[in-house]
Amino acid sequence: MLLYISYKRKMGNYKNIIFDVGDVLISFRYRDYMRDLGFPEETVEFLTNNMIFTDFWEAMDRGEKDVGEASELFCDRYPELSQEIRIFWENIRDIVAEFDYARPLVLSMKEKGFRVYLLSNYPEKLADMHWPQFTFLPDMDGYIISAKVKLAKPDPAIFRMLMDRYRMKPEECVFIDDNRDNIQTASELGITSIHFTGYDDLIRELQKIGIEEK
To answer: Is the confidence at residue 5, as pLDDT, over 70?
Structure first.
């Protein structure tokens, strides 16, 4: 798959790199996580479509729903899978895993003089659980977690909040995300935006705008 990139300028005086987290720096490995728990494939697919890709999960990202509500809500909704649902939420720490390239990539950008930020849609309690274990977190110059500010991508307001909080100019930023809607919003705000589809493609697209990894 070709990497999609949207930008106003081919080259720019970039100062800031903004990363999404899920499926860019860490794997949101929900299917493999459920397989690790021993769920049959039909259960994996059912819970993927009816628990993860739901309005409830999006509401958790926006800080409108709490992770603590999830288990009972989905057990009530799907009582035939209540045992699996409880196991899922009791072991939720293991649903993510950091990519091996994540911290070296971040450090490479820092060594080149860029300031590095995170802009992530993430439920608050899961962020409190997961983020301390990410090895790249101490290297960040700042971040915004959607649920903590009650806004989520692709709402332009969360991008503006990041710009205002860290006194950044859109034209000096490069934003990297795996979601096309998010990069579309960022691009409309004047931020050079790269649709992430894989590490190797990302490195090639960064090179196109004059940013070498090493």
So the answer is: no
